[in-house]
Amino acid sequence: MEKIFELHADVCKVFSNAKRLEILNTLRNKEMTASELIEKIGLSKANLSQHMSILKSKGVVLTRREGVNIYYRISNAKIIQACDLMREVLLEQLREKGKMVASLRRIK
User: Fold this and answer.
1) pLDDT at position 77, please?
2) How far apart are CA 108 and CA 98, in angstroms?
3) In CATH, what number is assigned to the domain containing residue 41?
4) Looking at residues 91-98, what average pLDDT do you find?
5) If you placed Cys at 55, which of 60, 62, 70, 99 could pair as Cys (CB 3.0 to 4.6 Å)?
6) pLDDT confidence of residue 86
7) How far is the CA of 81 from the CAs of 47, 51, 86, in angstroms?
8) Structural domain count of the chain
9) How many Å apart are CA 60 and CA 81, to the nearest integer?
């Protein structure tokens, strides 16, 4: 059972980079070429290549070649659902912190 937690942690590391999360969000409903991703996100070709290599090695994105273009897409829709769920939790936490700060200001 411990091995599954190690594998889980390894996959979660992929999601600990803001640019990779932005890439995943950009790919959420479509397939895009590296050039399209570079233009949309504003990364250098080398930087995008590094991120895509990590995402591909962990099975988060899939690729297909068409001529000189490589197309990227999310491997499983549940990946986007998981990212959305974590973002919802974050937003709820931020709202709660905002309420706490507001109530503390009223006390002063």
Assistant:
1) 96
2) 16
3) 1.10.10.10
4) 89
5) 60
6) 94
7) 26, 20, 9
8) 1
9) 13
